[in-house]
Queue: 2 jobs
Job 1
Amino acid sequence: MPNKKVAVIIVSYNADRFIADCFGSLGRANHEGIDLQTIVIDNASKDGTVERIRREYPWATVVANPNNDGFAGGNNIGMRLAFEHGADYVYLLNHDTEVTPGFLIEAVRAMEADPAIGAAQSLLLLSPEKEKVNSTGNALHFLGLGYCMDYRRPASAVDCQSVREIAYASGAGVIYRVAALRQVGLFDEDFFMYHEDLDLCWRMRLAGWKNVIAPRSVVYHKYEFSKSIAKYYFMERNRYIVLLKNMQWRTLAVLAPFLAASEVALFVASVGGGWWRQKIKVYRHFLTAKAWRRIFEERRRVAAFRKIGDREATRLFTPTIAFQDVTGPFTQYVANPLMTATWALVRRLYA
């Protein structure tokens, strides 16, 4: 494998309790043949994260961001810095992870094997339940929802050898080709958090790049599904922005009745779940001229590099929701069969 410049980028926020596992394992990892730079963007931590990393891991370049710019903004600062230093690849790593010795070599090897790959996610396993899966790549539902594939399945039950296409790569442990990022752009900083990795991989797909899982690159993730009510605003707002930015108008027109029906169901769910105020806030966002100006600007930018239509772009989409933390009997036995039939019809209508 030829010598490649790779920047590992970690966005930290009050991460003191994770530092030893993340940076300790990263320091022990094998990066033979790789010109490695580690960049930490700290989003205004208050727990001494910056001081500890600088003191105990001086090989990391630490940027103390005076603001909390979220996952998207923090990683964009790091990626731009990596570009300035001539990186061929950037690897985004969550601060709540622990890497295996060969994670980076295997990730780069996957990218080098196929120049059409724009993003390759590592196999994410849970920590401390290291025999169970966090994500073998992320599934993308046709209504704009994303979730971890094979969540909590035994690692022994999944393919841990084959590099294969996925809908999109989780930002918790992913390598991006700099050439692809220069073409399609970085994370959308308006998202702040949630779905920015989904949006980026969708744009890569539209530009003709592949998103894959590189399962021989293994990262352990201290994953916790957030129970915070506040997250629903970003999740719901951002999934609609992703759809409106990246889908062709014809596809959106065909999907409109089904989106409307799902919106009624989601609003009822939000009332029952106590997060209806977040749904109202989402509606208010889309009643502003600023929101729509931004969407139309993004659509023009995407159109400039789009190489494939929606039929091919949505080939890896799923009509079902199969995520353990949110899937109940209603979803499994009612919603999923209905959505499967819906997606089969939609695909025929915009073919």
Job 2
Amino acid sequence: MAITKTDFMRGMQCRKMLWLDKHKPGLRVIPPEVQARLDAGNDFGDRAMGMFGPYEEMTVYLPGKKIPDKKAMIRKTQEHLAKGTPVICEAAFSNYNNYCAADILRKTDTGYDLYEVKNAPEVHEQFVRDAGFQYYIITRCGVKIGRVFIVIHGPDEADPFLPQDVTREARGYYRWINDNIWDLNRMQKQPEEVAVEPGEQCCDPYECWYYAYCHPFRDTAGQ
């Protein structure tokens, strides 16, 4: 695959982060509290699959591994789109090898609505960009997307799923994504490490997992 949704979001935070993901992933340091948030987000996403009733999940793993078989997921997704499956979860798409898997696609009279699930109490701009990337890939694959929603975590634990309509904002990122996706694809493949000075991007919107690598003298600075 070329650029995935995760690649794009991380590369737009910091191009060096994406390059390290591809060439030196062993340098990652994921704090336990961050891993706990990631696990909680995955659990919330799994629960959200049933928010509209029966659904079909597209997740397929490579034999004997817990690694998604993206090509098999894309084929399975196309089969369910052709059948008109009402709710498709983890629907996988590829355009020029750029890839995304949508949390939920819900069939409408004219196509599908897109739902991106986030275990957070409010919508953040990076969530909208995330959904915008999916809208970009899916529409370029010929699937008509009507509305785009971010599903946030509401206060009622019995029914915590609160869809927020971000259609206009997500569509507004189309040109921005197109302007950057091809550059990120070229950059991640270059053999030389990308040179980026540490700055605000190291912690905004998330602390980089390579923070220690890029700040080797942070504990002794100023002494």
